[in-house]
Specification:
The chain is α/β, with parallel strands linked by helices. 39% of the residues lie in helices and 20% in strands.
Length: 321
């Protein structure tokens, strides 16, 4: 099967080159973002890079190393020298879903990387179009049961959280659903508006403009609590679906990096994310700033892996490599 992009993202930050003794706090650090420039994750990277550089007294360059659904960038950091010259910022799903679906995993997150910090969260939305004239999730389920020939739904790509969230929804509702993969959320939303598919699962940030313009209707969000961006929309859990499927951006160093530096880097990133001006810029693009310790990132990764592993396994989806 073709690889598709997972929700992508990244972050910029500076790293102190260390080899044996701590070197002078001046130099160049490459923040590797394994997806294209211009989207929310890239903005996150550049914002944090700008804030963190003076804290760590490093020159920071954000570099987009795209390809292989994030694998090219991930593997470049995996094989980098653990001296502070490279740091990886990417989405959580990239780090826990790719090893699940590859026939031969290209990396082991626990062995090949050192966790630094959780950076920001983003959410997914269940979206319907004007052709589905229902008021809420209950009406949505009734509509699907009454129209078994119109249960196709769109996702931004295969092998992503929306893909597997759709599989969980199908199981919980007991209604056969037909997944249609696209190349991004915009195409999914266009086909929902045009009536070519009945509904879709996309990032909340991508769906909000059309929701506010009445082009589509968001009837559920995947977060544990109602989203601050759409407080009137219930969570899927409130609607009886046992699914919490938000996603997030995290920061990692190559395995073997100095723990003291990782701790300092994580603290700097958290401090940057706590700044009011940074929070304002991130919330404007649908991101919820977090910041955490390395342990916090590890626990988040472990919890997500445990939750999604049986769901992914049940679908039988694999990427041949």
């Amino acid at each position: 099967m073709d690889r598709r992009k997972f929700m992508a993202g990244c972050l910029g930050l500076p790293l102190l080159a260390q080899a044996g003794e701590v070197q002078a706090q001046a130099g160049l650090t490459k923040i590797i973002f394994p997806f294209a420039a211009g989207a929310g994750g890239d903005t996150l990277c550049r914002l944090i890079a700008q804030e963190i550089a003076p804290m760590l007294q490093r020159t920071v360059v954000v570099e987009n190393r795209t390809g292989g659904d994030g694998l090219i960038g991930i593997k470049s950091v995996k094989s980098a020298s653990p001296d502070g010259s490279m740091v990886l910022v990417t989405t959580g799903p990239t780090m826990y879903l790719l090893p699940m679906v590859e026939t031969t995993p290209s990396f082991d997150t626990a062995k090949d990387f050192m966790p630094v910090s959780l950076l920001a969260r983003f959410e997914f939305a269940l979206v319907i179009g004007p052709a589905m004239d229902v008021a809420d999730f209950k009406g949505f389920v009734a509509w699907l049961k009454a129209h078994p020939d119109k249960t196709s739904f769109g996702v931004p790509s295969n092998g992503t959280i929306p893909h597997f969230a759709g599989s969980k929804l199908e199981k919980d509702l007991g209604i056969p659903l037909t997944r249609v993969p696209y190349r991004g959320s915009a195409l999914v939303l266009n086909d929902i508006i045009g009536g070519h598919i009945s509904f879709g699962i996309v990032t909340l940030a991508d769906a909000l403009p059309q929701h506010r313009a009445k082009g589509v209707k968001i009837i559920g969000v995947s977060s544990a609590e109602r989203s601050p961006f759409a407080p009137d929309v219930p969570t899927l859990k409130e609607s009886g679906i046992d699914l919490v499927a938000d996603a997030w951006y995290g920061m990692w160093l190559p395995a073997g990096s100095p723990p003291e530096f990782a701790s300092k880097l994580g603290a700097a990133a958290s401090a940057a994310l706590a700044k009011p001006e940074v929070k304002e810029k991130l919330t404007a693009i649908g991101l919820i700033p977090v910041g955490s310790t390395a342990d916090g990132l590890s626990k988040e990764l472990a919890a997500n892996t445990a939750f999604w592993q049986p769901i992914v396994k049940a679908t039988g989806y694999r990427i041949e490599n």
